[in-house]
Amino acid sequence: MAAALTRHNVPLRPHMKTAKSIDVARLALEGQPGGITVSTLAEAEYFAAHDLTDILYAVGIVPQKLDQVAKLNDAGADVIVLTDDLDAAGAIATHPRPPRTLIEVDTGESRGGVSPDDDALLAIADRLGVNLAGVMTHAGHSYAGRSVADVARIAEAERSGVVHAADRLRAAGYPAPIVSMGSSPTALHAVSFEGVTEVRAGVYMFGDLFQAEIFTHAINDIAVTVLTSVIGRRPGKLLVDAGGLALSKDRSTEAAPRDYGFGLVLDRMGQRTLGEAIVRRAYQEHGVIELDPGYQMALPIGGRLRIAPNHTCMTAAAHDRYYVVDGGDDVVAVWPRVNGW
Amino acid sequence: MAAALTRHNVPLRPHMKTAKSIDVARLALEGQPGGITVSTLAEAEYFAAHDLTDILYAVGIVPQKLDQVAKLNDAGADVIVLTDDLDAAGAIATHPRPPRTLIEVDTGESRGGVSPDDDALLAIADRLGVNLAGVMTHAGHSYAGRSVADVARIAEAERSGVVHAADRLRAAGYPAPIVSMGSSPTALHAVSFEGVTEVRAGVYMFGDLFQAEIFTHAINDIAVTVLTSVIGRRPGKLLVDAGGLALSKDRSTEAAPRDYGFGLVLDRMGQRTLGEAIVRRAYQEHGVIELDPGYQMALPIGGRLRIAPNHTCMTAAAHDRYYVVDGGDDVVAVWPRVNGW
Asked: Smallest CA–CA separation between B220 and chain A, in Å?
């Protein structure tokens, strides 16, 4: 990801929502300016405590969270917040310790944000006053892309939309030093970042089955798996002790070209030696693996497997730490995560 | 649940997999013998440390977990384990500190367990030797029941199957002091528990939208909700700061008569004053609420709502504590949970 963006001479503000780990953040920040993106204030507190202080909190702010943001900023952080709402902008502007704020722009996902051409853009800017620091957008609908060309087209709409919003602000006399866009697919496949000052991406750090299906990386590059043990054997099936709580109930790949159920089954070394075995059902603590008919089962009770996840953001959040392995299955480090809110 | 089982004169061994809380366990155990069921050894350790020592670990045991069980039992607990596998039975029998063991019996769910008439039942009993403590079954397929009569029929198959397995063991000279069955729906709606020595149930303690759909309780009896704040407003929609991580990605109600998306929206007091509003989409930290067309939106940015979950076992596991309210929204207690493994 860093290499792809360096070719465009645009910096990466890695989104730590997937990894939630200072150890991973340090890897992601190699050669970058040092700013990060977070999805919770718990992440903001954790990373600020680890001296990463340039933080974009990329979920719409509510007034009752401004005191917590102020406390972080008083302690030396620069937490930038996000809004698409006139009342929230008013609450920011009248707060005794207002943070720098980006206006969220909708470039096609229709989740949050004002349209680049909406009058609300200028009204919110006016309300924010000196606290306005620019614009940001997230083309989450890039996840619906089914070819690199699809994703590149969505990336261009994301770029041109957010740059257009910045241009409108500047034309009206407002500053817009930050023009932020990004999702892992659009960050990787955009043809141009002209006018963009930073790119956000997160899930690429680990990858998952869904991202592999939408061309973010190869399936063998998935870096996070769930280790599990065989607890039952039936013809054509294995019962394992990783269920919905360990894997998450995410079914992202249901909408992908290839449906991996609740995950793809790898051997204990993380290799695809079991054919196309997938986790077909996920109970709370039980997973039911459907074996590839071509695979001859040789796993004992207690035998270890790894499950590659549909959606790493969800699966990693079920665990409070990473056991880091380096090629094999010897644990060479344990990296904690900051879960919760 | 306790009242329903008391009418049948059968004790409850509450399953703590949903609540994972000593405070809730104490409520569930009022008037009961004191034995509990758990789904992880982390739960077993936590509850044993809180002096609940009669513990059924109701997930098939693997040899590598026997040392951890032995350590608990050496410290005064009586952790009973479960198997349906001859090799696992052998590992138990040859362990220096073997736990009491139940044989898992399949009474129709086809997840784990041997059929009551299978020769494997007697072979596993033989392998377990003096460690055999009885039989257990779980009619998880009761979740597919669509009437009380359906559930009662499944409950009777659950009961007769597990009792038949116990009878076969006894006829062959093996003891079966414990005959354990249960799921919240079958525990509540069974017509008879003849021959059963204990009933397990867990999700009934909190309930959820799915259980309400399958007649376990009324929808107003759901005891766990997720508090969230409005972070964005659009025509007919609200964006809230509870997404897939706070609600889980569980979609149980997809298969129920009424599909609640990712949860039913209640007001901050937990009342249904917002009509039929549901969480239609769940991103990592964003939920998109589709408002009932009949509802006139009056919620400000930062306004609070509560989301009733599809599947409490999954949703509660996303949080490390309960904020207990009593009627209103004043927090009267904070109860921790034991998450993880």
From this structure: 24
Rounded to whole angstroms, the Cα distance separating A140 from B255 reads 27
Cross-chain CB nearest to B64 (options A229, A284, A341): A229
Chain A residues with CB-CB distance to B39 below 8 A: 284-285
Residue of B nearest to A82 (CA): B231
Residue range(s) in chain A whose domain bears CATH number 3.20.20.10: 2-205
Instruction: Please give the CATH superfamily to which domain B219-320 belongs.
Output: D-serine dehydratase-like domain (2.40.37.20)
pLDDT mean over A128-141? 96
How many Cα atoms within 13 Å fall on the side-chain side of residue B167? 11
Which residues 269-298 of B are in CB contact (within 8 Å) with A?
281, 283-286, 288
CA-based nearest residue in chain A for residue B251: A249
- Outline where DSSP puts E strands in chain A: 36-38, 54-57, 78-83, 101-104, 132-136, 178-181, 198-199, 226-234, 237-240, 264-267, 278-282, 287-290, 304-308, 321-325, 331-336
CB A274 within 8 A of CB A295: yes
The residues of chain A that CATH labels 2.40.37.20 are 219-329
Least Cα distance to B43 among A284, A338, A289 occurs for A284
Closest Cβ–Cβ partner in B91, B284, B311 for A39 = B284
* Residue B37, H or E segment: strand B36-38
Quick one: fold of A219-329?
A: Lyase, Ornithine Decarboxylase; Chain A, domain 1 (2.40.37)
Element (H, E) at B22: helix B22-28
Task: Give yes or no for B49 touching A (CB within 8 A).
Answer: no
Question: Which of A84, A251, A286 minimises the CB distance to B59?
Answer: A286
pLDDT digits (tens, 9 = 90+) for B266-285: 999 999 988 889 999 999 99
Distance from CA of B335 to the nearest CA of A (A): 16
Cβ–Cβ below 8 Å for A39 and B285: yes
Is the ipTM here above 0.90? yes
Topology at the third CATH level for domain B2-205: TIM Barrel (3.20.20)
How high is the pLDDT of residue A297?
64
The percentage of chain A sitting over the pLDDT mark of 70, rounded to a whole number, equals: 99
Facing A17 at nearest CB: one of B60, B85, B284: B284
H-helix or E-strand containing A2?
helix A2-7
Residue B49's pLDDT is 98
